[in-house]
Predict the structure.
Amino acid sequence: MVATNKKGFGAALWDYLTTVDHKKIAIMYLIAGGFFFIIGGLEALAIRWQLVKPMNDFVSAGFYNELITMHGTTMIFLAAMPLIFAFMNAVVPLQIGARDVAFPFLNSLGFWLFLFGGIMLNVGWFTGGAADAGWTAYAPLSTTSLGEGVDYYVLGLQISGAGTLMGGINFLVTIVNMRAPGMTYMRMPLFTWTAFVASALILFAFPALTVGLFLMMFDRLFGSGFFDPAMGGNAVIWQHLFWIFGHPEVYILALPAFGIFSEIISTFAKKRLFGYTAMVFATVLIGFLGFMVWAHHMFTVGMGPAANSIFAVATMAIAVPTGIKIFNWLFTLWGGSIQINTPMLWALGFIPTFTLGGMTGVMVAAASADFQYHDTYFVVAHFHYVIVGGVVFALFAATHYWWPKMFGTVLDDKLGKITFWLFFTGFHLTFFIQHFLGLMGMPRRYWVYLEGQNLDLGNLISTIGAFLMGVGTIVLLINIIKTSVKNEKVSGDPWDARTLEWAIPSPPPFYNFKQLPLVRGLDPLWIEKTEGRKGMTPAEPLNDIHMPNNSFLPFVISLGLFIAGFGFIYQKHDLSWLIVLFIGMGITLGAMLVRSVKDDIGYHIHKEDLKKEAEE
Amino acid sequence: MKDWMGKIRTLSLFSFLVIILSACGKDNLTALVPKGYGAEQSFNVIIISILVMIVVFVVVMAIYVYVILKFRQRKGQEDQIPKQTEGNKTLEVVWTVIPILLLIIIAVPTIASTYDLADESQKEDSINVNVTGLQFWWNFEYANEEIQTSQELYIPVNERIYLNMMSSDVIHSFWVPSISGKMDVSPENENTMYIEAYEEGVYWGKCTEFCGDSHSLMDFKIVVVSQEEYDQWIDGMQNTDPEYTAETATAQEGQELFENSCISCHAIDASANHPVVGPNLADFSNRTKVSGISDFSKEEIVRWIVDPAEVKPGNGMLDAPYLQENSIGQEEAEKIADFLMELKATDEPVDSVQQFRENEANDN
Ligand code: HEM
Ligand SMILES: [Cu+2]
């Protein structure tokens, strides 16, 4: 158990394929999410390269549409979501003083479903065309799109969505049930709070997507007509289903991002979070309002002035709790001793950027003004300010902040700052100008724009900015490689931080806390440190620790669904593919059966071993 | 500290410069110089919200810059522990209440204009046009005048026109930024909006709902003319001749080719009885653009006929039975172009159109 001998590659691989340890799952989410982020980024650069000058012919119309569709889909579902999950997995159990998540097996299953779903989404590239109906896949364009691209979209999202839903439920249960003694709700770190609310949003939002995707799958693969007006269906219903999911999705991403910044700002300003209670309520309120406003994506659908006005006002209301957050961050900084290193730089870059994104959010919420902004580059600018300026900045910040906790080494601060400045400058060059492009008449999802429409300069600048961001990302990769090669180990608490995850070694032992800590207030580690103690006071005597066994079944279950997906898709051309469908479902159901009938009660780490380890 | 501020300064200077350089866009396309009722209503709300937002941004940035300058950890202060403040009820109430007030300032005109723009009380007494969106062009049928045309919507200046819009395939969206905000064109229920233009001229329209391969090329125009010109145009359109015979010899050959290969989809008279398959080509010689995007010239017409896929990928003309079996060569296309350029509804050229073509020629 205690052995730290180097394992062979095969053994290490097998370890990752079967692990149920939240920390290893976090690393897998980080790698997979990072990989898809790069794919999505390359797609973005191809899009921007096509738009570098008017009437460019770098890519064809059809391929361009695949690029925008896959860029959006990849970034949201395969990069941002899993990267958020990476940090939730790496950090939340530690922050609440738990030994693992509530359902480790389910946690692993969630990851493999996401990964196989993500691969499925991208298979289209190699089989005659990826999805091309936009990441929003509006019917009837999506239901009538030729080829299998949209089928891969539907099945890939369905599989990975199931994984996300499981992850969300798992975190809800974990946070409700597994907090260390003394960790009341109002002592939970903000990142845990936001992970909690985001998980609740997942629980309510993803079923809407699941239902929508099922209906679309039936329309496309089995000839039903849920979204076909000619058959008595309703095409606009898809938009409602999609946005009832899609709008909360933005908050599923943004709230944990807020949590990340709250942690970083209070750590590096060396102050407790200003207005903690207000921050918690603002988080919950944003989560709640996030559900009430989906139709602000549909002001031009023809819902009528009453609906438009209601959704406009409800949307504007979100600005209030968001504003509370911004001011609370500013006043956390106020009177602090602000240390500006890479994670903090991202947090400081986030504040003005996200303020701009929030402000354009209020602007697009004004229905009658949105008649001009909607589906133009203004909106492209707005949502990138929110998802890149909010979420991606947070992911970069979290990468630098929690890297030592996850890997035991610190990323190079100089290179980190270079990454920041390149990305930050590139980001504003790319997207600020797009507000104007939109108002000057450039609609979104345009493969080319005509000559002589005064859109050339703005697009050129935008493309230059995008490439700067690309260079910034490359510097981060170099940083990661350099840090890993040097492999200089750091202590458990390199930032002099405040929350529980910093109370144990970096990287943490596989059982996390030898003895569960006793939490005596907000920022528990900080409390102990200011009272002169080195670490947390244990809340229990040293005891045997119960651990779950590794399992290969999550991988098999997901693989089965992946195989079945091909059966679903190709049976529309040739019924013999039904065999593949049955084989895939057979694998999945078989693996589930094994899981149900096999007794797997895990194992114990004995306290004698823990003692011995401590002495060494 | 210095170099950090410097970076911010260069950055903002640069973006400011960029805005000045690009000014407000092309004046018959931009939403920033409204030339119609709807655009003006939206513009007012845009301006109000921008002003409010600038105030908010300035306040946030003032606190932000002050905090960073003042409370940045300096050399030797690494071990200093600041006072741990919990929060401040008064401050928190202040920054909850003020934003609510600011939002009300935006919400009231928003709601007022949203209702105003949905007003249908004058529909019965106004010109009504039935708009059909298709991949990737637009059909306009004048309900009472019983004519139809495509790609270019003629309207009289300072008149309210009601548009009743439906799609015949996927969802499109009708947008003429200088005149009015957009409205989706859906295949299942009719959406109505009205437009009113303040100045004669030709205004650029775009499809803004992603609709397939040539979504970015689904452009159209609103041609705003004087009341007098409008009446003439309507009259001319009502009298376009289905039995028209071309004048010149090449045009006659072109007409013959047209009647063999094109007439199943395209009509040359503006009667509303023709089914909407391909664009109605009556009055073709007065078009501002070919296929909505290319300069109006014989060369471009020929380019379109010879290879429509090259101009607009995925467009419906590629499915035409005749074109699937035979391709039309350069020479034939030139003859057809000669014929098309003879089609006109009025002898007087339309001022706005002439003006527009000249401007475009200068711009490019
Ligand atoms: C590397 C930085 C990025 C660049 C340069 C970039 C650029 C673009 C461009 C040019 C478009 C197409 C706009 C259009 O034609 O309508 C687009 C669309 C989009 N982007 Fe990004 N993007 C970046 C990062 C991201 C990230 C991180 C996310 C989300 C996490 C994201 C989400 C989206 C979405 C949802 C769309 C809409 C796709 C659609 O219209 O179907 N982007 N982006
Ligand atoms: Cu369209």
User: Anything to note?
Assistant: The beta strands of chain A are 545-547, 603-605. Chain A has a mean pLDDT of 95.
